[in-house]
Amino acid sequence: GFDGVRIRIGHAMSANGKEWTKSHRVNPVLKEGPSAWDMHYVGFPSILGPDGSGRFSMWYSGNSDPNAYHIQIGYATSSNMISWKKNPDPVLTTSEESWDSRTLLFHRVLYNGQNYEMWYAGSRGIFSSSRTGYATSPDGIRWTKLRDNPVLLPGTTGSWDDEAAFVGDVHFDGTLYKMWYGGFDGSVVRSGYAVSPKGMAVKVSADRMYVAPGKD
Predict the structure, then answer these.
(1) Which of 17-21, 112-116, 126-130 has the lowest mean pLDDT?
(2) CB-facing half-sphere around the CA of 78: CA atoms within 13 A
(3) pLDDT over 60 at 24, yes or no
(4) Pick from 18, 35, 24: which is nearest to 1 by CA?
(5) How many helices (H) and strands (E) does the chain have?
(6) Contact at 8 Å (CB) between 116 and 106?
(7) d(CA 57, CA 185)
(8) pTM given for the model
(9) What does the alpha-carbon distance between residue 31 and residue 38 come to, in Å, rounded to a whole number?
(10) Which terminal Cβ of the chain has fewer Cβ within 10 Å, N or C?
(11) Chain centroid to CA 154: how far?
(12) Residue 75 pLDDT exceeds 80
């Protein structure tokens, strides 16, 4: 949620997935700071759980400077999805002089039974030129980026996603990883579809299908 100054993370509940009630008494459930790296805002959560001990895990993006973009990914845990305890430092950091040197956003995390897997949007700016990267972790805190990143690139010149291709959501159906991602052509954002047998080297569907924005 954004109030014009800060982005924070809220909580809401629904019985049917369509009608939602915000938890006004406790919202927001995750705020900026006190660590320096996320002192400006926190947002874009990806949550898993509960695990065998009843713990929920959240990975979120945080920014340290309102006048510049240095967005990294942090980690927090909770037993009730309301009270969260942050890890003091970011768990996935930007890479200097690389394709993800400024921002890490729109991440999605899955657990495959052995390791955590993360897909994230990285860029040298805030939005344009975004690409999708992949990382793995044994515990959700210590992450290793794939050496062959990024795994999803923008399309060819003139295509609907030639400016940016950033992860939206990922689902594993037991055989294939299926990704719905955002594509940007410099003026319009659309949703596309891609698949991968291993979660790496993501391949866009044959016809580079997408969902176009509504005319209204």
Answers:
(1) 126-130
(2) 15
(3) yes
(4) 24
(5) 0, 15
(6) no
(7) 34
(8) 0.93
(9) 9
(10) C
(11) 17
(12) yes
The whole-angstrom separation of Cα 114 and Cα 54 is 18
State the Cα–Cα distance between residues 57 and 170, nearest whole angstrom: 17
pLDDT in tens, 131-160: 999 999 999 999 999 999 999 999 999 999
Describe the chain by its helix, strand, coil percentages, rounded to 5: 0, 45, 55
What distance in Å separates the CA atoms of residue 132 and residue 151, rounded to the nearest whole number?
A: 6
DSSP state of 66: T
Q: Nearest CA to 194 among 184, 207, 185?
A: 207
> Encoding tokens for residue 119?
């897909």
Do 143 and 75 contact (CB within 8 A), yes or no? no
pLDDT given at position 66? 79
Residue with tokens 């996320």: 38
